TrEMBL record:
<dbReference type="InterPro" id="IPR004046">
    <property type="entry name" value="GST_C"/>
</dbReference>
<keyword id="KW-0216">Detoxification</keyword>
<dbReference type="InterPro" id="IPR010987">
    <property type="entry name" value="Glutathione-S-Trfase_C-like"/>
</dbReference>
<dbReference type="InterPro" id="IPR036249">
    <property type="entry name" value="Thioredoxin-like_sf"/>
</dbReference>
<comment type="similarity">
    <text>Belongs to the GST superfamily. Tau family.</text>
</comment>
<dbReference type="GO" id="GO:0009407">
    <property type="term" value="P:toxin catabolic process"/>
</dbReference>
<feature type="domain" description="GST C-terminal">
    <location>
        <begin position="90"/>
        <end position="221"/>
    </location>
</feature>
<dbReference type="Pfam" id="PF00043">
    <property type="entry name" value="GST_C"/>
</dbReference>
<dbReference type="GO" id="GO:0005737">
    <property type="term" value="C:cytoplasm"/>
</dbReference>
<dbReference type="InterPro" id="IPR040079">
    <property type="entry name" value="Glutathione_S-Trfase"/>
</dbReference>
<dbReference type="InterPro" id="IPR036282">
    <property type="entry name" value="Glutathione-S-Trfase_C_sf"/>
</dbReference>
<dbReference type="GO" id="GO:0004364">
    <property type="term" value="F:glutathione transferase activity"/>
</dbReference>
<dbReference type="InterPro" id="IPR045074">
    <property type="entry name" value="GST_C_Tau"/>
</dbReference>
<dbReference type="InterPro" id="IPR045073">
    <property type="entry name" value="Omega/Tau-like"/>
</dbReference>
<dbReference type="InterPro" id="IPR004045">
    <property type="entry name" value="Glutathione_S-Trfase_N"/>
</dbReference>
<protein>
    <recommendedName>
        <fullName>glutathione transferase</fullName>
        <ecNumber>2.5.1.18</ecNumber>
    </recommendedName>
</protein>
<dbReference type="Pfam" id="PF02798">
    <property type="entry name" value="GST_N"/>
</dbReference>
C-alpha cells in the first residue's frame, strides 16, 4: 500500500502535459516514481485513476489520483508550499498567471495539435498562422516582464513558463515540417532569450524531447490511425 507521501506519475515521454509535472517536481525537489503508460491498450491503473478522460498525466499522491496538468501543478504548489513557488503569492498576479496558462492551452496548444496533424502544407497553413498570432501575443506579454527586469513570465520559472515551455519540443516538430523557425529574433526578441533560459534551466534541462524523436512518434501514430487497405 502506498505511503501518504509516495508520489507516482503516470507519464508518456512525448506528452507536454506530463512534462509540466516533471518540471514542477524538479522545482520543488520532490522524488517520485515515474510510470510510463502503455496506451495500447491503456493500463488498468490509468483507467482506474482517470476514468473520466482516460488521459495522462495523473499524479498519484499516497494512491489518490489528481488529473489534468494545470490542476496538478496547483496541487503540488499548495501541498509543498515553501519556496520556490509555481504560482505568485499575490492574488491578482496569480489570476493573471492562470489566465495566460489557459490562453496557451486554449489558443496555442489547440492550433499546434491541428498543425501537427496536417500533412498538407496548405491545410496546415491556417493553424500555423494562429500559432504566429499567439506568439506575437505572448511576446507582448513577456516584454512587459522584461521591462520589469524579469527573465521569465514571473521572477522565476512559474505556471506560465511551465505551461508554455512544455510545448517547445512540439513547436520544433512544426518548425521541421515547415522548414523554418517559429520563434525568431526579429519578431520575438524576448521569447528567443526566454526559450534559451527556460530550456537550459537546471529544473528543465534534458527533459524537453528532441523534435526528431517526436516526429518519429507522430508518424507512427498517424500510421496506426490510417484505415487498413482492403484485402484483394
Amino acid at each position: 500500500m502506498a505511503s501518504s507521501n509516495h508520489l507516482q506519475l503516470l507519464d508518456g515521454w512525448f506528452s507536454p502535459f506530463a512534462l509540466r509535472v516533471k518540471i514542477a517536481f524538479n522545482i520543488k525537489s520532490l522524488k517520485y516514481e515515474n510510470i510510463e503508460e502503455t496506451f495500447h491498450p491503456k493500463s488498468q491503473l490509468l483507467l482506474q485513476s482517470n476514468p473520466v478522460h482516460k488521459k495522462i498525466p495523473v499524479l498519484l499522491h499516497g494512491g489518490k489520483p489528481i488529473c489534468e496538468s494545470r490542476i496538478i501543478l496547483e496541487y503540488i504548489d499548495e501541498v509543498w508550499n515553501s519556496a520556490p513557488t509555481i504560482l505568485p503569492a499575490d492574488a491578482y498576479e496569480r489570476a493573471m498567471a492562470r489566465f495566460w496558462a489557459a490562453y496557451i492551452d486554449d489558443k496555442f496548444f489547440v492550433a499546434m495539435k491541428k498543425a501537427v496533424g496536417e500533412e498538407d502544407e496548405e491545410a496546415r497553413k491556417p493553424y500555423v498562422e494562429e500559432l504566429e498570432e499567439a506568439l506575437v501575443t505572448m511576446e507582448g506579454e513577456l516584454q512587459k516582464c522584461c521591462r520589469e527586469g524579469k527573465g521569465f513570465f514571473g521572477e522565476e520559472i512559474g505556471l506560465v513558463d511551465i505551461t508554455f515551455g512544455s510545448l517547445l519540443g512540439w513547436l520544433g516538430v512544426i518548425e521541421s515540417m515547415n522548414g523554418r523557425k517559429m520563434i525568431v529574433e526579429e519578431k520575438h526578441p524576448c521569447l528567443v532569450k526566454w526559450a534559451e533560459r527556460f530550456s537550459s534551466n537546471p529544473n528543465v534541462k534534458g527533459l524537453i524531447p528532441e523534435a526528431d524523436k517526436l516526429i518519429q512518434f507522430s508518424k507512427a501514430i498517424k500510421m496506426k490511425r490510417k484505415p487498413a487497405a482492403s484485402a484483394k
